[in-house]
Amino acid sequence: MSNKLLELSGVHTHIGAYHILHGVDLSVPRGQLTMLLGRNGAGKTTTLRTIMGLWKASQGTVRFDGHDITAANTPDIAARQVAYVPENMGIFSDLSVKENMLLAARQAKRLNQIDSTRLQWIFSLFPAVEKFWNHPAGKLSGGQKQMLAVSRAMVEPRQLLIVDEPSKGLAPSMINNMIEAFAQLKATGTTILLVEQNINFAKRLGDHVAVMDNGQVVHAGSMQALAQDEALQQQLLGLAI
């Protein structure tokens, strides 16, 4: 079994007339948390959407768990136990929190078929999900919606969890809850690919890091090494972390 659960090789993506990804090479080690960093507009979200088949690679290969998924449709990729939390969260506003969670549980048709132990674990990480269980999801605050979005991705065991900026717009106390959730997920052996602008978030969680610029990965290595090298941080990100 390869140590690489997910691997992108020479991936190009066009959106209409725009050439966004210019040969992305990215490896996501199995059972680790990989941070995907870069300035705004570097191509991070496009990379995630290409992995999920929402946008199709025009060149190159995306392999997951040894299988070529470059041309696969999004539902087929999700069926391989891949969960994706987009930057806009993708909440169904007119449905209750409970109904949002049930929709995300692919193996459950009724609420009592969801693993109750796992559900209680999610409630312990995100008490607001339990508190507003029967409320319309659209009535939640932005931070509560973000917690619901991550909770949906966690409701069943996943091989790979892909999350786009989970701390965006969260209060510091909520960010700590989110960090704890991902730390516990990582401890279960779940592989995680995370786009994040909060550098403290990245430093506390990341095992590996890939930095993007202008539609390419320009640096890959350990998160700890990047966190300790201020000159490299300035070179890659234009800031010191």
TrEMBL record:
Coiled coil: none annotated. It holds the Pfam family ABC_tran. Keywords: Amino-acid transport, ATP-binding, Cell membrane, Membrane, Nucleotide-binding, Transport. GO terms for molecular function: ATP binding; ATP hydrolysis activity; branched-chain amino acid transmembrane transporter activity. One of its GO terms (biological process) is L-amino acid transport. The keyword ATP-binding applies. Residues 6-239 form the ABC transporter domain. This is ABC transporter ATP-binding protein. It comes from the Bacteria. InterPro entries: AAA+_ATPase, ABC_transporter-like_ATP-bd, ABC_transporter-like_CS, BCAA_Transport_ATP-bd_LivF, P-loop_NTPase. PROSITE patterns: ABC_TRANSPORTER_1, ABC_TRANSPORTER_2. Belongs to the ABC transporter superfamily.
